[in-house]
Amino acid sequence: MGSILVIDDEKSMRDFMGIMLEKDGYDATVAETSEEALYMIRNQPFDLVLSDMKMPKFGGMDILNEVKKCSPQTPVILLTAYGSAESAVEAMKKGAYDYITKPFKVDEVKLTIKKALEKKKLTDENITLKGKLRKKYVYSNFIGRSPQMLKVFEMIRRVAASKTSIMVTGESGTGKELVAKAIHYNSMRKNGPFVSISCGAMPETLLESELFGYQKGAFTSADSNKAGLLEVANGGTFLLDEIGEAPMSIQVKLLRVLQEMEFKRVGGTKDIKVDVRIIAVTNRDLKKCVEDGTFREDLYYRLHVILLHLPPLRERKEDIPCLVEHFIKKYSASEGKNVQGITQNTMMALENYGWPGNIRELENVVERMVVLERGTMINEENLPQLFRKGQLFIPAQPDLEMGKVDLEKLLEETERDFLLQALEKANGTIIKAAGLLGLSFRSMRYKLQKYGIQKKEQ
After folding, report:
1. CA 306, CA 258: separation in Å to the nearest integer?
2. In the chain, N or C: fewer CB atoms in 10 Å?
3. Strand 213-214 to strand 166-169: parallel, antiparallel, or no bridges (unpaired)?
4. Homologous superfamily of 3-130
5. pLDDT, position 83
6. What's the whole-model pTM score?
7. DSSP 415-441
8. 227-281, pLDDT tens digit by residue?
9. Would you tell me how many other CB atoms lie within 10 Å of the CB of residue 266?
C-alpha cells in the first residue's frame, strides 16, 4: 500500500505508529534519531515520511528540507506536541503535506496518510505519463529514412529550443500534428500544456469563444465566465490546426496574440496576458490565400518565421517499407495477432500506389490487412479490393525527356481526378469523400468549388 518512514525520538510513539501502519497494510520503517533518518532518506525511496518536529540535533524542518531535496514528490507530515500557528504556516510554505498536533485522533491521522499517499500516486502517474508522451514524440522516434525526412528530423531538433512561432505545412495525413508535438516535447515548455484547436471544425462564433473564452452575459447561454484554450495553454504550446480555414475576424485577433501575447475574452474588457508558443499547421498554400484575399498578409508573415514542410508519401516511397513494418508491429500487438511481415508482391503494390491520404491512409490500410490476415505474413488477398483490381488512379510520371511539362496543370488535373474518384466512391457525398482523402469538410468544399464540381453535402 506504500512505504512509510516514521521518525520520532520517543519510543512509545515510534512503536505505536509502526504497529498501526503495519496493521493497516503499509510497509513501515522506523528511525530513532534524525541522523539515522537522514541517512535513510538519502539512500532509500519512501512514499511518505512522518516526522516529529522537535528532535535532538536535526528537527522536523531539517527532515522536510532533505526530503524535498532528495525526492520532491514524497509528501511529509510533521507531528508535534508544541504546535503553533507560525510553525505550521512555515512548514506548509516549505512544502509539508500537513502539520498535526499531538495528541491526535488516530482516525484523522489515518485519513491524512491515505490522502497524502493518493496524492503521491497521482503525481507519480502524471510524471510517468508525461515521460511516455515525451518518449513517443521525440524526433528520433519518427519513422523515415528518406533524405526529405532526415531533413525534417534535423529541423525539429534545431527549432525545438527556440521560442518563435512555427508554421508546419504539408498535405493531409503527412503527420503535421505529430511534428508539432515533437517540437513541444523537445522544448523548454515540455512540462507545460500542449493544447490544439481546429480552425476549420467549428462555426466562427464558437471558434472565437473556444479560443479566447467569454465573460458571463456575453451571449444568451453564457451563464458564467469561461477561460479560452489560449489561457489553458499558458506556459506551453498552442497548436492552430487548419489555420488556413480561420475566418478573417479570427485572424485579426490571432495577429494581436502573436504580436502582444494578449487578448480579450468575448464580452470582456480586460486584457489577458499569456505566454504560449504558437505552432500553425495547414495543408493549404497560404501564400496563394493571401493573393486571393482570404488570408491576412501580416498574419502570414507573423506565422511564417520558421517554415517546416512535410513531403507527401508519394515523394518519399523509400519510407513505405519501414512505415509498413511499424504499423504491422503496432496492430499485430493491439489485435493479438502473430503477423510477422508482408510478402514482396504485396509490398510492391503498396509502393506503387499514389497515397493521396498519405501516412494516415497507409496506416488504415495496414491495420485492415493485419485484422484480416490469418497467417503470419500479409499477402495480396488482404489488400483492399481497389488495389488488387488495379482500379485506383495512380498519376503517371511526367517524362521531361519528351519536352516541357506544365507542372501546375498536371497537378490540377491529378487533384481533380482524385476528387472525382473519391466522390464516386462516396456516392457523391462530400463529407464522406473528404474522409477518403484525409481532408476537412471545408477544404473539400473549397476544392470542389475551385474546379466547379457540384455535389450534395450530406
Report:
1. 14
2. C
3. unpaired
4. Response regulator (3.40.50.2300)
5. 63
6. 0.59
7. HHHHHHHHHHHTTT-HHHHHHHHT--H
8. 889 999 999 999 999 999 999 999 999 999 999 999 999 988 889 999 999 999 9
9. 20
Percent of the chain as helix, strand, coil, to the nearest 5 = 50, 15, 35
Radius of gyration of the chain (CA): 30
Domain ranges of the chain: 3-130, 143-311, 314-388, 400-450
Selection from 55, 284, 328 nearest residue 167 by Cα: 284
For residues 436 and 430, give the distance between their C-alpha atoms in angstroms, rounded to a whole number.
10
Strands (E), 10-82: 27-31, 48-52, 76-80
> CATH topology of 3-130 equal to that of 143-311?
yes
Q: What angle do CA 286, 290, 293 make, to 5 degrees?
A: 130
Q: Is the pLDDT of residue 79 over 60?
A: yes
> CATH classification of 400-450 is 2.10.109, yes or no?
no
Q: In this predicted structure, what is the pLDDT of residue 345? A: 85
Fold of 314-388: Helicase, Ruva Protein; domain 3 (1.10.8)
- Kindly report, residue by residue over 23-78, the tens digit of the pLDDT: 999 989 999 888 988 988 888 888 999 998 888 888 888 999 989 888 888 999 98
CATH topology of domain 143-311: Rossmann fold (3.40.50)
Q: What is the mean pLDDT of the chain?
A: 85
- Residue 212 pairs in a beta bridge with none
Asked if residues 155 and 166 have their Cβ atoms less than 8 Å apart, the reply is no
- Residues 235, 230: Cα–Cα separation, whole Å: 10
Is the pLDDT score of 391 beyond 50?
no
Residue 14 near residue 58, CB atoms below 8 Å: no
Reported residue count of the chain is 458
